[in-house]
Amino acid sequence: MAMKTCSVCEEEQWEDLVDDEGICESCRKNFAIPRQSPALRPLTPCRRCGGRVIVRCRAIRERGASGGDYVHAYIAPLAATFARATRETLFRKRTVEQNKPDLAQPAGVFEAYICRACGLTEIYTRDPETIPIGPEYATELIEVPSGETPFR
What is the pLDDT of residue 152? Predict the structure, then answer.
């Protein structure tokens, strides 16, 4: 099997561990790098200044730390919410939800578009229909009455 170099860590990896974007599995997880996907923003100039160079940030990432005596730093995608963590029980091998979020399962990942000229930033949400609704996710649905328009 051939070797490939990861474009992030620049380490040689087995070919099957580096994806078509040239990123190894470890770097994709450690740096919370999402896979390539279609852009959410229309290909138009900046609405503030008319600038034509836009930076696409496929996932706004946040830093955090967890643990008690031994702190573990992590990077996670900024999202509307996260799925609840699950674990398998020893008895009957059932899957049960835990009382904490699973940072590896974001729902409604935020994607940003930044104008290089003026800095205007637009934020879009990927797959909004997958965002779970409920107090345990800190989300709720708000229905807009019919007849209302987005224009004042």
Answer: 59
